[in-house]
Design goal:
Elements lengths: L2 E4 L20 E6 L8 E5 L7 E3 L20 E8 L6 E2 L1 H5 L8 E5 L16 E2 L1 H10 L3 E4 L12 H8 L3 E4 L9 E9 L7 E10 L2
Helix pairs in contact: 2-3
């Protein structure tokens, strides 16, 4: 028997957004109701980095590839959830070395971020530092998922993003891993089918028992 875990953030007005910036808040507006029309119809205004989302290289690299360059076959497959809930500030190479990361793996990093259910952005979130990014490149991973709205902070020049992108490693941000135990799963990430932009909101699920 398999179990499906939805590891996506719910999109709604007033949700947690990067930097608590009002301009990044999703807006849902009713444009037709049963009182003034024949159908109920809503309009959504959404930043492409809202909630759980996939970053494309253009986000950090001039002339980088846009979101449609990432094929669905790259966003499904076996993944491991690693328990890093003990980390207080940044995930380092030393934190990752004990997990025997293998070439071609998708890894999802479960930290204390997954337990922050507040609508207020935590600017002290746990992130992946530059040394850890270099180590993951050496390991040859396929992709990385993190449970913060960004994979890094407080690093001049965004070296974590840029190093990973330059080595064709996919970045998924904004996962919710609170209900997921460390271990192996089948991962499915389905970003909106956008084109010409640097990111897309996504639904992400883990499946155990297959």
């Amino acid at each position: 028997m398999f179990t499906i875990y939805d590891i996506s953030m719910t999109i709604h007005e007033g949700m947690q957004v990067w930097g608590n910036l009002p301009g990044k808040q999703p807006i849902v507006r009713n444009v037709s109701s049963f009182e003034d029309g024949e159908v109920y119809d809503s309009q959504l205004t959404l930043n492409v980095h809202t909630g759980t989302h996939v970053d494309a290289p253009l986000h950090m690299l001039k002339d980088g590839a846009t979101i449609e360059s990432i094929g669905l076959e790259q966003l499904v497959g076996h993944a491991r959830v690693l328990d890093l809930t003990h980390v207080e500030d940044s995930i380092s190479k030393a934190d990752l070395e004990k997990h025997d990361i293998q070439k071609g793996e998708w890894i999802l990093l479960k930290t204390r971020n997954s337990y922050n259910e507040s609508a207020v952005f935590d600017d002290g979130f746990v992130y992946v530092n530059e040394g850890a990014a270099r180590y993951l490149i050496e390991c040859g991973i396929r992709g990385i998922g993190v449970d913060a709205l960004g994979i890094e902070r407080s690093q001049q020049g965004y070296p974590t993003h840029r190093q990973l992108f330059r080595n064709n490693i996919i970045i998924v941000e904004g996962l919710r891993l609170k209900a997921v135990q460390p271990g192996s799963y089948f991962l499915v990430v389905a970003p909106l089918k956008l084109t010409g932009v640097e990111a897309a909101p996504a639904r992400a699920v883990l499946i155990s028992g297959i």
